[in-house]
Amino acid sequence: MSERIPTTEPPATTTPATTSAPAGMTPPAPAQLGERDQAVLAFERQWWRHVGAKEEAIRATFGLSAARYYQLLGALVDSPLALAFDPMLVKRLQRMRSARSEARASRSLPADD
Predict the structure, then answer these.
(1) Which of 3, 7, 62, 105 sits in a 20 to 30 Å window from 41, CA-based?
(2) What pTM was estimated for this model as a whole?
(3) Considering only 22-36, 48-62, 93-107, which range has the smallest mean pLDDT?
């Protein structure tokens, strides 16, 4: 006897992209950034002279550790919604991240002789 194990995922359905919402229903609104994500981007627009001051402001404003904030920011920088919301800021943050990554990669360890 074989026992079927129920799946938690509904069966896949395909819907053509050109279909409209059923009569009496409004189509879903386009996806938008949440309030927290918008606040993070607004926070990043500010100019920070001292790292410590920014980390204190992150905790006071968002109630997050700096590490968690930067995790959220990293995901946000890769988000197409964030890019659509504030393209100049997101592209600047992407360039800064890329430059830091390249700087880390260009550092070489001393060669063993």
Answers:
(1) 105
(2) 0.64
(3) 22-36
